[in-house]
User: Which sequence fits this backbone?
């Protein structure tokens, strides 16, 4: 059984090909982590998620602390046993969703108090309690509690939230203690301000973490702002630790993140888009609700390595989406998660051979070429 | 490639063990047919349905004629290709759901006109058009159009509907013509009146069908009434043709139907119950919404041949049901369909060895013993 560690295998420009070892298995990076919000990647069996190529899942502390509750999950053997996923799980700190979902929230130096959006019951979340919850879930990669602002935001606000997040990082490190079989990641904040970001990174480095998350991006700012912040920030992060861009994104966000030195990504987008009839392919995005697919016997992509892209006609998928059948959500979620993994696999191979620029250019050209012409 | 045929393999009292051959494969009887309402067994991939043991699916003519439309399905290669199910499909005539779902319906000697419950558009359904639609869908086992009344009903009404259904049976037979690779079933009507039922059966036999459906049961009457009608009716049906009890039922309805000489069953109940948190096991029905399961680490049934009954805790399934996660509908639909197939497999084996009475008694005793005691 291996402890948590990160190995850098190859670089190509700022991009990195790496491997994370954990007691529950390896994670090839750059990695996309499907989101299993409340103990399930929506509309997928765990073995179907694994079969798309996912090495690791994400679980949401906020959702799980409300239902079924961290102590309950622990009594039932931890989140892996609970959801029958034996490979690594990363958990967030809960802070982001407290800010976006919970009611009557109040932030103090100590932490945040809030009421559940489900039944109004009251909760406290402190840096220490967040670590405790994530440990009860038996998470393999734990996040510090931080304060994440939406952008645009005032400089003063960004500075205050970044400084608070740093103090919480310090408390999180103390609370986490020495647990070599799992990892604690600090979270860089500082909004769209390079100086604040660098200061945040320096503060976290001096505390020392197993990995560095980049929070507070993809929160309302243009993609170019996100890419600028990433390019300014990642050189400031330790080369020998993984970097995780939280909550990102669409395929082109991920490709751009990889080019700027990010190792890990997560997003609900592929499964949510699938439930709404949108699928991602090497030719870009397809809206299966569109009437152009109604009589189209062609599959999504007959050259795809994914059987679901070859076996069902567009007409059938259109029909499932229009009739709001659960099978539509199942198939389209699978297609999107599979495509995200294909994108990461391609990037990993390209970085190893020093050809990421070509891979990225070809990938973007295919996206730009668009879907098949109408039937 | 075999034409449609039925072979009676063994009998045990009134119960029958048989085999239906079709060009798309064998159907072991007694058979339970999962319902793929609108071109999908809800929340299941076709291969998952097959893996539960299903030899044949049912498709609903009413739903499919509205969306995506029979001519469209035909242009796309038929229903089997459309939904990627290569084994046999039975279709109903559409009549039952016109009566239960459609708006502004008007019944005449000629047929029925109605408006779609989805968008109000107008349709005609005659015995001839129903055969045409089912042929466009490329159904393997086709039903005549009939008029199905809810019970209780006036004797005069039951007689009128039965006589109309007989005249429609005759027109259906003419419209169907000679198609040995598929089957046309006549439908016995006559409500809860033995004399009318026998008269209906005699009329259908004199026309001559590949199989005999029993319609107009499980439409509001007590189970004992249904069982009485079955016991009176099945001796009047040809021994060398399959008998199909339409739209039935719960496991104890199916066991009772098998004991009274029925060969085929279909019902939305197992998948619908699954979507509502109810699962069927050899110990009866379990309501997973119930708080007693909240902390229960035990699986549904650790001795079940179905992996989904062994791998997930009751606490996890309770959580999925409470959070209304799609995976809950997926797992519980699968568990129910699997249990229905186990029930039919057990009955088939028992009939072959002349032990159906023992099998039925043991099955009912286990149902009566109830679920595991609380954790």
Assistant:
């Amino acid at each position: 059984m291996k402890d948590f560690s990160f190995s850098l295998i190859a670089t190509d420009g700022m991009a990195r090909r790496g491997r994370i070892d954990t007691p529950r298995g390896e994670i090839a990076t750059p990695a996309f982590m499907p989101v299993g919000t409340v103990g399930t990647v929506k509309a997928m069996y765990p073995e179907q998620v694994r079969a798309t190529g996912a090495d690791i899942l994400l679980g949401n502390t906020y959702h799980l602390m409300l239902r079924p509750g961290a102590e309950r999950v622990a009594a039932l053997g931890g989140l892996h046993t609970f959801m029958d996923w034996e490979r690594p799980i990363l958990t967030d700190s809960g802070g982001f969703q407290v800010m976006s979902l919970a009611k009557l929230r109040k932030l103090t130096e100590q932490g945040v108090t809030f009421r559940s959006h489900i039944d109004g019951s009251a909760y406290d979340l402190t840096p220490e309690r967040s670590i405790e919850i994530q440990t009860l879930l038996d998470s393999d990669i734990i996040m510090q509690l931080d304060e994440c602002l939406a952008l645009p935001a005032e400089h003063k606000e960004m500075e205050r939230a970044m400084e608070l997040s740093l103090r919480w990082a310090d408390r999180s490190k103390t609370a986490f203690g020495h647990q070599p079989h799992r990892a604690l990641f600090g979270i860089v904040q500082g909004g769209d301000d390079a100086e604040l970001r660098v200061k945040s990174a320096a503060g976290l480095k001096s505390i020392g973490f197993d990995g560095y998350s980049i929070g507070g991006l993809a929160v309302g700012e243009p993609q170019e702002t996100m890419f600028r912040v990433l390019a300014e920030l990642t050189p400031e992060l330790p080369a020998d630790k993984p970097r995780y861009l939280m909550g990102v994104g669409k395929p082109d966000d991920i490709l751009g993140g990889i080019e700027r030195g990010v190792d890990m990504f997560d997003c609900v987008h592929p499964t949510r888009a699938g439930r709404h009839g949108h699928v991602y392919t090497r030719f870009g995005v397809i809206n299966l609700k569109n009437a152009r697919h109604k009589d189209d016997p062609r599959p999504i992509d007959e050259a795809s390595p994914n059987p679901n892209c070859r076996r069902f006609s567009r007409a059938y998928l259109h029909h499932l989406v229009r009739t709001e059948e659960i099978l539509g959500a199942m198939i389209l979620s699978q297609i999107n998660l599979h495509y995200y993994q294909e994108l990461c696999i391609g990037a990993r191979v390209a970085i190893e051979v020093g050809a990421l620029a070509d891979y990225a250019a070809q990938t973007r050209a295919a996206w730009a070429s668009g879907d098949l012409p109408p039937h």
